[in-house]
C-alpha cells in the first residue's frame, strides 16, 4: 500500500492546535480544581496548595489520541472539531506571538491559518472511514535470542483500536513480563518481541477496529536456531552480538523487598524482582547492596546473586550488626534504579532469664605488637536489669578456643588487650553481664594481626633519579648504637574508672637490638618509684594499668631496655587520677537524656518518632528507641542497634493500637537516662488526599443518560472518603466539564443530559478530610446509546470477604439494568491472574449475591467475573474484579461463640488483627446487614466487637459474618448451628443460676491429739464467700472447743472439734453462699460409723502422749530401674512388726500391690510408666503405738526434670533403630525403647532441621514407642531423618535415610493403603432417613425417602420381597440430585405389604437396607410392628462398613400424629403413614461425609448402662 504524504502546512497546523489546547486545558484544570476545593471539606492552606499542585501538571495527550503528521485524515478530524473555537484560538495565538516573536512571524501564521480555513470544506467528505493500513506488517526472519520489531500505520475515523494476535490468540503482555512490548507513537503501532525463541515462530496479526469496520494486517516471523543448538549459543558463536555493558540495559524493578524482621542466629533474604531488556543470561545487571550507605561486599556473612529476573541478598548468620537500612542500587540505561527498606534484627532468646542482649560492632583499634584496643556498642535494655560490665574474649585465627581477657567485668565499651604474640592473628568478641547472667557473645570482630605499626615509619626511601630507589632503615643512619635513648611523650591516652592506658613515642636513637620497655609509677609528689610490669616484656608503646587506688594521683615514667642495658628514665607524666565513684572529676560520662519525644502517624503499621538531642552529647554512638502499648508496663525495643539520627520510623506495630515511646542516648559509657515519654498515638496512616479511583464502567444507558460505577481508591489517605466528583467530556474534545458540584457519597452515579450517539469519556476524583485527590485516568470512550437488549446488564462492585489460604467469599451488587425480566440468578467465573482461561464456579445460577469459593492455591492470585441471568438468557459479564491473593492477613482471628461470665448472654465476638480510627464493625446474617434488630445488639470496644443475642432460639440459627471497614479486608464468619446454640444455652443457664461447685463433699478426718476435722472443699471460693456449720439443726460458731476457718486459695472450709465425745453424734451440715451461688453438704455420723470415729479419736489422743516411736533414717528419694520404673525409696529405724507404713499422694492414700515391709529397714513405692500425671507431693507415714513419723517428697520442678532425665538415659540407651511403617495417612518412622513419655526431651530432625509437629509432620508416641508421621508425603520429604533423645548430659540419636529405594517402596505402600481407605470412604451408603417398620392404612400414600451418598454418585435400586421395583403410576421411584432416593406408593393396598429394601452401590461398594411395610384396612386396629428376618443382603466389598446402627422405637399410639416424628432431608409426604423412625441422623454438613467408624448391623442396640451402676463417689477419709 502506498504511503500518503501530509503537506507541511498541515503538520504545522496540527502541532499548533495541540500546543494551544494544552495551554487552555492547563488553565481550565486550575480553575476547575479551585472551584471543587471550595465545595469540599475545609482544610489547612498548606493542604489546599498541595492538592492544587497535584492537579496542575500540564496536560499530556493520551496514547489513543496522539496524531501522526503523516496522516491527512487526522488533520481533517481535528480541524472539524476546532471550528467553533477558532476565534478564541486566534486571539491566544496573537497574544503569544506579540510576546515571543516578531510581527512578521505573526502575520505569516495568520496567513497559514486562513489557508487552512479555505481547505476545511474540501476535507469534510473524507472524515468517517473504516480502518485502513497505510503501512502494513512485513515478515521477519531472525536468529534465536535476538529481538524483533513489527510495526504498521493505520488510518480511519473514529480512530481505530489496534490489537495484536499470535496465531489468532490475543497477546497479553502482563502474563509474560518483559517478553512483549506494545507501543503507539504518532500513529505508528509496534510490537517488540524480546529475546526470540523458536516457539515465537508464528503468524502475527494487527487487527484495527472502529464502528465502521475491521482491517487486518498479517506477517510471518521465523526464528532460526544455528547449527549446534543451544550449546553454540552458550559459547557465544551464534548469533554475533556486540558487547553490552550492564549500564546499557533497561531495568525495571517489580516486586521489591519490604521492611523485614529477623532474629539473631537466623537467616533472611532480601529479594527484588525486575525486568531486564535485553535479558541476557551471561550479562546480568550490575547491582550493589548498601547498609546504612556503606557498600557491602560478598562474603560468608552476605551472599549476593543477580539473575533470573531477581536480585537477592542473603544474610545466613544474622546478628544485630546486620540491622540497618538496606539499599539495592542497579545501574540501568537511564542511570540507577534504587530501593531501600529497613531490616530489624532482634535479640535471640537469652542464655538465662533476664540476661542482657549481646553487644555489637566489635572492632579493634590502635594495633601494636602485643597490644590492641577493643571497642564495641552496648546492647539495649528495656525490662532487663542494668548492665554491670563486659567480658572481652580473644581467639587466634583458625582456632575455636576462646580465652577471656579480663578477670572482672569492664564497665565501659572499650578494653585494652595486652599480652598478644607478635605476628599472630586474632579475633575478639564481647559478652555483657548483669545481675541475671551473661549474654550471648557478640559477632566476632574482623581478624587483626599483632605487628609493630612504627616499622614502616622507620623506613626511608632515597630517590636516585632512575628507575630504582634505595630503601634504608633508621638503624643504618644511627650508626652503631648499644644503649637506646629514653622514650618521649609519655601520657595517659585513656582514663577510665577501670583502667588507665599509658602511651609514648619509641626512643631515638633506638638501636638494632630487640627493644622492650619498663614502666614505673609513684604517688604524685612522693618520688617512691616502683616497677609495674616486671613479669612481662613490653614491646609496644602502649600499656594498660589496672591496679590504681581510687582518689589518689599517680605519676608514670618509662625506660627503654635492650640486651645492652637500660636507657635513662623518660620525663614523668603529669599527675593522673582515675574517675572517682561520684564522677566529680570525670572528663566525660554517659550523655544526658534526650529531649522532647514526638510521635506522628506514618503508615497503618508504623509510627514516625523524632526527638531533641541531649544537651550534653559527649561522643554519641546513637540512640535506642523503646515503645510500649498504652496501658501496659512492658517496654519493647524498637531498634536493636544504636541509630545515629534524631528521627526514626518504628515498624511492625499493630494497626489501630495505641503506643507510647521513649528514647535513650548511647555512648562508650553506656545508656543515658530515659527521655520523657511521648504522647500516646494510635497507629494510623498519615492524613493525605486519596489516590485516584479506577475501573469506571457503565451499568445502564437510556439514550440520554448513563449510569456509571467505579472502584474505590487503593489508598484512602488515612481518613474516610466522603465525596466523589465526576467530570465528563466528548471523546473528540479536550475540554472537561463537571458533572456534579456537590459531592456524591456512593460509588454509582447517573449522568444526565447526554446526546445520543456521542462517545463520552469520564474521570472521577475522591475527596476526604485532607482534600480532593488526583483524578482517575479517563475511561475508555462510551457511546450514549439506549440499551434495549432483553438480557440483564453487568453486575458490579465485586468485592471479597473472609480471604484465607484456600477459601474466600465473593460479593457483588445486582445489575442496574435488569433487561426484559427480573434477574433470576448469577453465574460466577474464576481465572488465575494473568490467565484468560476462566473456570465456571456455578453449574447453575445462584439466587443470592455472594458465593463461597474453595479449593484455592495458597499464595496464588485470582480474578473473578459475574454474569446475571434472567428469562431471556445470560447478560453481560461484569468488569473483572481486582486480583485477590489467597492468603490470610497476618494475625487473622476468627469469630468465636461464647457466653458472658457475668450476665450469661450468648454472643459472637471478633478481635480484629488491625483497625483504624474510622473503622466500623458491620455484622451480617447470611451476608445481609443486620442493622437495627431487636434480636441482637452489636457493641465494639477497642479492637473487639461483640454481637449479643437478646433471647436466642432457633430463629437465630444461620451464618453470621462481620467486616471491619477501612482495613485491608479484615473479616470473618461463623455458622451458628443448633448444637452450638444448645451448648451455649446450657452454659448460659448455669451462669444465670449458679451453684458453688464442690470438689469434695463434707467429710471428716481424725487429727493428732484426737481432734476431729470436718471439711468440705469447693472448686473455687471468692474472698466474699460466707458459710455456716449446723449440728443437729443448731448453728455452731467458732469458740471454745470448736475452730472454724476457710482458705480461699484451696477452697477448703473446715471445723475442728477439740474434744470429740459421745455428745458429738449426729448430723453435720455446712451451708455455703458465694455471691449469687450457693450450695450445702451434709454428713451423718451416727451408729457404727460414729463409734469407729470416736474410737479412732481416742486412740490418737493416747498416741500423742507417747513421745518415742518409729522414725525415718533416710527420707524419701527416687531411683529408676532398668525397666524405667521409678522407685520412691526410704529407710526406717526403731520399728517393730506392729509398725504401720502408709503411702500418700496429694493427701490421697496409695495402696501398692506389694505392702511395705518395715522390718527390712527400707520401703519403696514403684511408679510404672511415669509421666506428668504422677506430679504431686508424696508422703510416707510410719507409726505404731509409740507414735508416728512422716516424710514428704515433692515431685515437681527440678525433681520431676531429674526423674525424666534418668528415664531418658535408660530409654535412650535402649532405643532401637528407626523403623518405617506405612499408613493410609502417610509414612511413619518409629523408634522402640524401654519406655517413652512425651515429657522426655525428644527432637525429630529432617536434614538436620528441627521438625515441629504440624498437619504435615505429626509427632507422637506410645508407652514403648516414639513416632513421627509424614502426612501426604512428597519428594520434598525425602532425606535423612533422626530422633534425638536428650537426658540432660548426653544425646542419644537414631537415624533413618528415607530416600532411594526405601522411599520408593514406602511411597508405593502408602499409595496402596490410601487407595484402600479412599475406597472405603467413598462407597455407596444410606446416610439416613429410612425407618425400620412402617404401618399405614390402605388408600393412603406411602413415601419412603432417604439420603444416600457415595463418590462417584451411586446407583439406587428398590426391591419388594427381593424383586426389583419398577417405577409406575402406582409405585414411583425417584433419585434427585444424586442425593435423595424416594419410593412413593400411591393409595396403598394390603397387597403392598411386604419387605422392601434399597440397594445403594457404586464402584467402591455399597449397602443394602430393609424396611417392613404393613397395610391395615379401615376399622382395623393398628397391628404391632414386627421386624422381618434379615434377608440375604447384596454382596458387599470386603472392606465396606456395615449399615448404620439403628435403635428400634415402639410404634406411637393412634392419638399421636403418625408422621410427626419423621425427619427427612426432603419435604415430608402428605401420607398418613406410621413409620418407626430410627435414631435421628443429622444431615451431613459436607457433600462428602466420611463416617468415623463402621456402623453395626441394624439388629444391634445402643449400649445402655445397667441399672445397678452408680456414679463413683470419693471415699471417706
What does this structure look like?
- The protein has 1517 residues and is mainly beta.
- It is 11% helix and 39% strand.
- It is built from 11 helices and 101 strands.
- It has a 6-stranded mixed β-sheet. A 5-stranded mixed β-sheet has the order 2-9-8-4-5, with no helix packed on it. A 5-stranded mixed β-sheet has the order 11-18-17-13-14, with no helix packed on it.
- A hairpin with a 4-residue loop joins strand 90 and strand 91 (1291-1298).
- Helix 1 (8-39) crosses helix 3.
- The radius of gyration is 46 Å and the shape is globular.
- The chain starts with 7 loop residues before the first helix and ends in a 41-residue tail after the last strand.
- The model is unreliable at 1-72, 120-126, 228-245, 581-587 and 1428-1517 (pLDDT under 50).
- How would you state the average pLDDT, rounded? 81
Shape: globular
Give the C-alpha Rg.
Answer: 46 Å
Outline the low-pLDDT stretches. Answer: 1-72, 120-126, 228-245, 581-587, 1428-1517
How many β-strands, per DSSP? 101
Tally of individual helices: 11
Helix content: 10-25%
The amount of beta strand, in percent, is: 35-45%
- For the largest sheet, list the strands in their spatial order: 96-95-99-100-93-101
Main structural class: mainly beta
Q: How many angstroms separate the termini?
A: 113 Å
Largest sheet: 6 strands, mixed
Amino acid at each position: 500500500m502506498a504511503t500518503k504524504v501530509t503537506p507541511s502546512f498541515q503538520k504545522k497546523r496540527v502541532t499548533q492546535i495541540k500546543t494551544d489546547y494544552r495551554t487552555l486545558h492547563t488553565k481550565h484544570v486550575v480553575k476547575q480544581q479551585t472551584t471543587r476545593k471550595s465545595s469540599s471539606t475545609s482544610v489547612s492552606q498548606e493542604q489546599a496548595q498541595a492538592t492544587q499542585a497535584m492537579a496542575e501538571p500540564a496536560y499530556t495527550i493520551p496514547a489513543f489520541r496522539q496524531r501522526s503528521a503523516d496522516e491527512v485524515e487526522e488533520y481533517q478530524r481535528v480541524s472539524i472539531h476546532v471550528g467553533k473555537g477558532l476565534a478564541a484560538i486566534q486571539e491566544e495565538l496573537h497574544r503569544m506571538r506579540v510576546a515571543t516573536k516578531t510581527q512578521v512571524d505573526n502575520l505569516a501564521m495568520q496567513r497559514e491559518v486562513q489557508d487552512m480555513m479555505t481547505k476545511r470544506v474540501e476535507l469534510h467528505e473524507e472524515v468517517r472511514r473504516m480502518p485502513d493500513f497505510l503501512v502494513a506488517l512485513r515478515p521477519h526472519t531472525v536468529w534465536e535470542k535476538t529481538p524483533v520489531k513489527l510495526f504498521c500505520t493505520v488510518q480511519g475515523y473514529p480512530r481505530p483500536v489496534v490489537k495484536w494476535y499470535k496465531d489468532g490468540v490475543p497477546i497479553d503482555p502482563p502474563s509474560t513480563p518483559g517478553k512483549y512490548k506494545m507501543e503507539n507513537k504518532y500513529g505508528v503501532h509496534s510490537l517488540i518481541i524480546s529475546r526470540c525463541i523458536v516457539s515465537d515462530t508464528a503468524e502475527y496479526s494487527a487487527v484495527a477496529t472502529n464502528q465502521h469496520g475491521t482491517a487486518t494486517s498479517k506477517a510471518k516471523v521465523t526464528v532460526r536456531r544455528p547449527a549446534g543448538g543451544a550449546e553454540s549459543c552458550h559459547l557465544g558463536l551464534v548469533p554475533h552480538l556486540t558487547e553490552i555493558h550492564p549500564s546499557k540495559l533497561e531495568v525495571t524493578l517489580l516486586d521489591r523487598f519490604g521492611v523485614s524482621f529477623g532474629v539473631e542466629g537466623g537467616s533472611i533474604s532480601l529479594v527484588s524482582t525486575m525486568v531486564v531488556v535485553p535479558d541476557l543470561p551471561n550479562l546480568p545487571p550490575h547491582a550493589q547492596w548498601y547498609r546504612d550507605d556503606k557498600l557491602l561486599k560478598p562474603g560468608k556473612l552476605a551472599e549476593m546473586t543477580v539473575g533470573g529476573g531477581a536480585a537477592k541478598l542473603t544474610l545466613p548468620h544474622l546478628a544485630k550488626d546486620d540491622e540497618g537500612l538496606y539499599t539495592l542500587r542497579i545501574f540501568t540505561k537511564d542511570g540507577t534504579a534504587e530501593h531501600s527498606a529497613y531490616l530489624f534484627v532482634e535479640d535471640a532468646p537469652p542464655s538465662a532469664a533476664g540476661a542482657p542482649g549481646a553487644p555489637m560492632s566489635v572492632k579493634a583499634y590502635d594495633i601494636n605488637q602485643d597490644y590492641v584496643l577493643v571497642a564495641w556498642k552496648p546492647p539495649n535494655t528495656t525490662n532487663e536489669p542494668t548492665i554491670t560490665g563486659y567480658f572481652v574474649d580473644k581467639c587466634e585465627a583458625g582456632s575455636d578456643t576462646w580465652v577471656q581477657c579480663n578477670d572482672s567485668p569492664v564497665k565501659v565499651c572499650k578494653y585494652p588487650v595486652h599480652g598478644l604474640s607478635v605476628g599472630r592473628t586474632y579475633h575478639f568478641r564481647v559478652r555483657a553481664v548483669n545481675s541475671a547472667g551473661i549474654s550471648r557473645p557478640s559477632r566476632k570482630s574482623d581478624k587483626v594481626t599483632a605487628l609493630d605499626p612504627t616499622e614502616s615509619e622507620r623506613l626511608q626511601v632515597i630517590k636516585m633519579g632512575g628507575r630504582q630507589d634505595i630503601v634504608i632503615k633508621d638503624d643504618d643512619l644511627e650508626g652503631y648504637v648499644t644503649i637506646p635513648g629514653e622514650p618521649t611523650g609519655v601520657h595517659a591516652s585513656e582514663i577510665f574508672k577501670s583502667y588507665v592506658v599509658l602511651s609514648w613515642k619509641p626512643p631515638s636513637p633506638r638501636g638494632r637490638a630487640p627493644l622492650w620497655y619498663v614502666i614505673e609509677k609513684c604517688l604524685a609528689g612522693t618520688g617512691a618509684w616502683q616497677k609495674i610490669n616486671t613479669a612481662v616484656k613490653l614491646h609496644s608503646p602502649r600499656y594498660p594499668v589496672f591496679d590504681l587506688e581510687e582518689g589518689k594521683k599517680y605519676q608514670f615514667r618509662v625506660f627503654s631496655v635492650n640486651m645492652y642495658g637500660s636507657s635513662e628514665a623518660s620525663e614523668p607524666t603529669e599527675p593522673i587520677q582515675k574517675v572517682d565513684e561520684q564522677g566529680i572529676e570525670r572528663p566525660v560520662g554517659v550523655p544526658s537524656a534526650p529531649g522532647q519525644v514526638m510521635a506522628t502517624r506514618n503508615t497503618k503499621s508504623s509510627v514516625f518518632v523524632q526527638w531533641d538531642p541531649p544537651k550534653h552529647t559527649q561522643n554519641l554512638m546513637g540512640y535506642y528507641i523503646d515503645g510500649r502499648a498504652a496501658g501496659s508496663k512492658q517496654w519493647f525495643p524498637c531498634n536493636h542497634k544504636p541509630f545515629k539520627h534524631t528521627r526514626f520510623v518504628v515498624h511492625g506495630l499493630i494497626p489501630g493500637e495505641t503506643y507510647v515511646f521513649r528514647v535513650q542516648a548511647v555512648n562508650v559509657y553506656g545508656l543515658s537516662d530515659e527521655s520523657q515519654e511521648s504522647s500516646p498515638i494510635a497507629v494510623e496512616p498519615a492524613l493525605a488526599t486519596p489516590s485516584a479511583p479506577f475501573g469506571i464502567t457503565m451499568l445502564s444507558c437510556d439514550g440520554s443518560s448513563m449510569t456509571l460505577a467505579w472502584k474505590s481508591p487503593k489508598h484512602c489517605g488515612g481518613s474516610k472518603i466522603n465525596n466523589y466528583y465526576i467530570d465528563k467530556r466528548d471523546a473528540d474534545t479536550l475540554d472537561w466539564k463537571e458533572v456534579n458540584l456537590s459531592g456524591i457519597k456512593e460509588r454509582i452515579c447517573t449522568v444526565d443530559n447526554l446526546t445520543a450517539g456521542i462517545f463520552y469519556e469520564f474521570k472521577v476524583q475522591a475527596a476526604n478530610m485532607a482534600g480532593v485527590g488526583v483524578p482517575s485516568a479517563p475511561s475508555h470512550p462510551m457511546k450514549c446509546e439506549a440499551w434495549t437488549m432483553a438480557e440483564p446488564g453487568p453486575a458490579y462492585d465485586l468485592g471479597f470477604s473472609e480471604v484465607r489460604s484456600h477459601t474466600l467469599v465473593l460479593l457483588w451488587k445486582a445489575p442496574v439494568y435488569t433487561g426484559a425480566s427480573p434477574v433470576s440468578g448469577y453465574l460466577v467465573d474464576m481465572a488465575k491472574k494473568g490467565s484468560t482461561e476462566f473456570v465456571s464456579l456455578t453449574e447453575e445460577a445462584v439466587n443470592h449475591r455472594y458465593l463461597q469459593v474453595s479449593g484455592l492455591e495458597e499464595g496464588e492470585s485470582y480474578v473473578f467475573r459475574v454474569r446475571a441471568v434472567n428469562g431471556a438468557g445470560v447478560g453481560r459479564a461484569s468488569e473483572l474484579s481486582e486480583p485477590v491473593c489467597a492468603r490470610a492477613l497476618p494475625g487473622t482471628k476468627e469469630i468465636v461463640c461464647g457466653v458472658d461470665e457475668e450476665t450469661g448472654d450468648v454472643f459472637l465476638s471478633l478481635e480484629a488483627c488491625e483497625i483504624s480510627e474510622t473503622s466500623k464493625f458491620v455484622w451480617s446474617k447470611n451476608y445481609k446487614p443486620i442493622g437495627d434488630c431487636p434480636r441482637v445488639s452489636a457493641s465494639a470496644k477497642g479492637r473487639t466487637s461483640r454481637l449479643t443475642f437478646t433471647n436466642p432460639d432457633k430463629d437465630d440459627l444461620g451464618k453470621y459474618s462481620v467486616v471491619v471497614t477501612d482495613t485491608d479486608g479484615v473479616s470473618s464468619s461463623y455458622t451458628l448451628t443448633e448444637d452450638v446454640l444448645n451448648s451455649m444455652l446450657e452454659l448460659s443457664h448455669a451462669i444465670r443460676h449458679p451453684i458453688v461447685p464442690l470438689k469434695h463433699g463434707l467429710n471428716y478426718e481424725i487429727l493428732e491429739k484426737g481432734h476431729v476435722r470436718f471439711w468440705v472443699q469447693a472448686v473455687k471460693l471468692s474472698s466474699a464467700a460466707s458459710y455456716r456449720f449446723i449440728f443437729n439443726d443448731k448453728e455452731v460458731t467458732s469458740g471454745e472447743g470448736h475452730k472454724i476457718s476457710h482458705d480461699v486459695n484451696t477452697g477448703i472450709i473446715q471445723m475442728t472439734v477439740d474434744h470429740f465425745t459421745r455428745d458429738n453424734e449426729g448430723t453435720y451440715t455446712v451451708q455455703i453462699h458465694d455471691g449469687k451461688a450457693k450450695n450445702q453438704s451434709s454428713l451423718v455420723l451416727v451408729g457404727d460409723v460414729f463409734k469407729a470415729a470416736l474410737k479412732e479419736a481416742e486412740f490418737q489422743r493416747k498416741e500423742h502422749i507417747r513421745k518415742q516411736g518409729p522414725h525415718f533414717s533416710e527420707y524419701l528419694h527416687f531411683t529408676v530401674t532398668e525397666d524405667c520404673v521409678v522407685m520412691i525409696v526410704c529407710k526406717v529405724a526403731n520399728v517393730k512388726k506392729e509398725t504401720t507404713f502408709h503411702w500418700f499422694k496429694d493427701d490421697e492414700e496409695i495402696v501398692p500391690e506389694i505392702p511395705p515391709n518395715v522390718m527390712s529397714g527400707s520401703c519403696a513405692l514403684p511408679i510404672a510408666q511415669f509421666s506428668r500425671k504422677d506430679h504431686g507431693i508424696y508422703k510416707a507415714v510410719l507409726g505404731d503405738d509409740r507414735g508416728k513419723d512422716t516424710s514428704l517428697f515433692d515431685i515437681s520442678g527440678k525433681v520431676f526434670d531429674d526423674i525424666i532425665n534418668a528415664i531418658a538415659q535408660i530409654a535412650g540407651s535402649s532405643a532401637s533403630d528407626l523403623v518405617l511403617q506405612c499408613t493410609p495417612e502417610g509414612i511413619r518412622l518409629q523408634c522402640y525403647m524401654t519406655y517413652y513419655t512425651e515429657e522426655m526431651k525428644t527432637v525429630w530432625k529432617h536434614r538436620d532441621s528441627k521438625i515441629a509437629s504440624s498437619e504435615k509432620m505429626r509427632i507422637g508416641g506410645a508407652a514403648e514407642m516414639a513416632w513421627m508421621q509424614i502426612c501426604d508425603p512428597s519428594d520434598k520429604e525425602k532425606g535423612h531423618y533422626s530422633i534425638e533423645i536428650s537426658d540432660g548430659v548426653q544425646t542419644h540419636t537414631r537415624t533413618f535415610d528415607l530416600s532411594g529405594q526405601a522411599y520408593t517402596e514406602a511411597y508405593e505402600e502408602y499409595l496402596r493403603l490410601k487407595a484402600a481407605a479412599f475406597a472405603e470412604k467413598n462407597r455407596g451408603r444410606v446416610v439416613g432417613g429410612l425407618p425400620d417398620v412402617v404401618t399405614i392404612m390402605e388408600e393412603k400414600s406411602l413415601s419412603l425417602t432417604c439420603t444416600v451418598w457415595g463418590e462417584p454418585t451411586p446407583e439406587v435400586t428398590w426391591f419388594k420381597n427381593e424383586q426389583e421395583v419398577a417405577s409406575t403410576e402406582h409405585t414411583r421411584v425417584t433419585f434427585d440430585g444424586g442425593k435423595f432416593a424416594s419410593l412413593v406408593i400411591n393409595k396403598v393396598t394390603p397387597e403392598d405389604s411386604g419387605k422392601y429394601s434399597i440397594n445403594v452401590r457404586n464402584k467402591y461398594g455399597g449397602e443394602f437396607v430393609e424396611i417392613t411395610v404393613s397395610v391395615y384396612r379401615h376399622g382395623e386396629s393398628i397391628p404391632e410392628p414386627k421386624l422381618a428376618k434379615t434377608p440375604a443382603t447384596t454382596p458387599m466389598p470386603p472392606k465396606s462398613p456395615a449399615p448404620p446402627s439403628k435403635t428400634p422405637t415402639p410404634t406411637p399410639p393412634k392419638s399421636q400424629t403418625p408422621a410427626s416424628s419423621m425427619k427427612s432431608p426432603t419435604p415430608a409426604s402428605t401420607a398418613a403413614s406410621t413409620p418407626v423412625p430410627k435414631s435421628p441422623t443429622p444431615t451431613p454438613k459436607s457433600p462428602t461425609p466420611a463416617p468415623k467408624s463402621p456402623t453395626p448391623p441394624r439388629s444391634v442396640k445402643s449400649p445402655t448402662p445397667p441399672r445397678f451402676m452408680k456414679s463413683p463417689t470419693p471415699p471417706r477419709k
